[in-house]
Amino acid sequence: MYMSGNNNDRKDMLKKLWSAIEAHESEILEALNKDLGKPEAEALLHEIYPLKKEIQFAIKNLRDWTGKRFVSTPLSMMGTRHYVKAEPKGRVLIISPWNFPVMLTLRPLVGALASGNSVVVKPSEHTPFTSDVLKKLLGSVFDDDLVKVELGGPEVAAGLTATPFNHICFTGGTNIGRLVMTAAAKHLCSVTLELGGKSPVIVDKSANLKNVAMKVAWGKYLNAGQVCIAPDHLLVEKSIAEDVVANISERITEMFGQTPIDSPDLGKIVNVNHYERILKLVKDAVKDGAKLHVPGGVLELGAKMRKISPCILTGCTSDMAIMKEEVFGPVLPVLTWDKKEDVVDIIAKNPHPLALYIF
After folding, report:
1. N or C: which end of the chain has fewer CB within 10 A?
2. Is this structure's pTM higher than 0.85?
3. Which of 147, 163, 194 is a domain's end point?
4. What is the CA radius of gyration of the chain?
5. Residue numbers annotated as active site
6. Tally of domains in the chain
């Protein structure tokens, strides 16, 4: 088990990881495009660059993190000195998601290695090309007794969580998060859970609608809406609802062109099941009275392509299926309100938001 207290060794490992990321950058970009249709610029901006920043940050702060932090001494122990010193957890398991499969796999790895731990990494089976590259990348830098990559589906994850670890880092859906926490409790293993939620955007009549459209469209349709903190739905004051929808529609065409579904900047839905789930939510909402707005006029190109055009659903209500679960796709439900108390009631009825945006 790796539990080195030598900061220089840890820095060397992080620098080697940096070098490996640079050496495999073209393979990473190609894999992300195959799995998720991520454009190169988007992949660099949201997968590679933040990861390099994380490594820089860890190297810069490692001495402070591992040093002694002196604390006050209680009267009953006068004459002694007290300090707190961080120690490695030991064996760490990282179960990472598919929406940002590089950044959300390697970022927790950076922290685990900087802390002096050995790590088992289980990347998502839904992004197989990227997971293969990650296994190759990490295998080129670390021995299996320090960093081991386990590929596979739910059965592999279940087997790993049944194994005693000292800490588990899981990013993914709330239901699986509960299973991870239950499994960890059997071994008194600490956990870090980054889960989902329905994140609302609240807009009142004082807002700058151009600003609203620019920020909401970028946040909602990045990575085809497959972002844990993406705006899930819009809660807009009734008197400005039509103007807000018009501005967001205009912004969609500015981002993706006159026919967004054909844009190379529009990512793919991760798999057919997820693709069909999103379309069913749209179909059911329309059946229940919502109106679908699709800039460019083409909603989807079939399951083989796994692309859904950025779209907006107006006339939604809290009892619709699309308001009962996280959308996690390029579909923006819009609900209207007259009184601010209505907003509080709507949010309270939904799953707890991971983020909340106010304009």
Report:
1. N
2. yes
3. 194
4. 23
5. 194, 228
6. 2
